Task: inverse folding
């Protein structure tokens, strides 16, 4: 069945996993050696049978690995060969173990441009939220407490106690405690440490500037 999936114009998340596990015969987390050669051969055959050309990503992949018997690829590389939005979402949900880790990867991973749905070169809260595991999707929770720019600026200045232009962990902690108290139906007090850790991942060496906090709390661009 996995071979037939290679004929699809788009590949669903479940099909993607079936393909990976089918060709990772020994279950070591890589498609390598003969496994990789079989995958390349069957990928080319499947696309031809379906009347589909190899995509540019596929062509580059085949050129690099077709004669490389020592080559191997993991789930990251396969995602790039069979790129659908659902596959990228699945990959990030499986690979990232926490909100904090997600935010750290978010700052540096170029593949996240795929989730820039309005093509403005930035990810807004709703776009970022699509990447987090459902069970700890704190970004969606904060959508319910986002505020207008004027109110956000007042809040930032209020909790930036030393007026140095950024919040440290203690200042953010105070803000989150008050937000949780005020929005008990949306935010959970026992999750403050999680919220703080994830938001501070946006900071510059422990300095959370206005523009970074605005990603989470402001309804407008700063």
Result:
């Amino acid at each position: 069945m996995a071979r037939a999936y290679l004929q699809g114009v788009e590949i669903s998340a479940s099909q993607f996993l079936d393909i990976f596990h089918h060709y990772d015969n020994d279950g070591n987390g890589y498609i390598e050696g003969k496994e990789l050669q079989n995958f390349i051969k069957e990928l080319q055959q499947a696309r031809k049978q379906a009347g589909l050309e190899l995509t540019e990503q596929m062509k580059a992949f085949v050129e690099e690995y077709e004669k490389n018997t020592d080559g191997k690829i993991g789930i990251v590389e396969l995602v790039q060969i069979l790129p659908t939005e659902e596959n990228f979402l699945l990959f990030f949900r499986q690979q990232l173990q926490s909100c904090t880790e997600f935010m750290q990867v978010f700052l540096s991973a170029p593949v996240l441009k795929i989730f820039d749905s309005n093509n403005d070169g930035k990810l807004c809260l709703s776009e970022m939220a699509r990447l987090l595991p459902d069970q700890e999707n704190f970004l969606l929770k904060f959508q319910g407490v986002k505020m207008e720019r004027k109110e956000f600026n007042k809040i930032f200045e209020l909790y930036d106690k030393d007026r140095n232009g950024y919040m440290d962990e203690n200042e953010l902690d105070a803000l989150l405690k008050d937000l949780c108290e005020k929005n008990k139906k949306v935010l959970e007090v026992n999750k403050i440490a999680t919220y703080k850790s994830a938001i501070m991942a946006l900071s510059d060496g422990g300095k959370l500037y206005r523009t970074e906090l605005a990603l989470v709390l402001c309804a407008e661009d700063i």
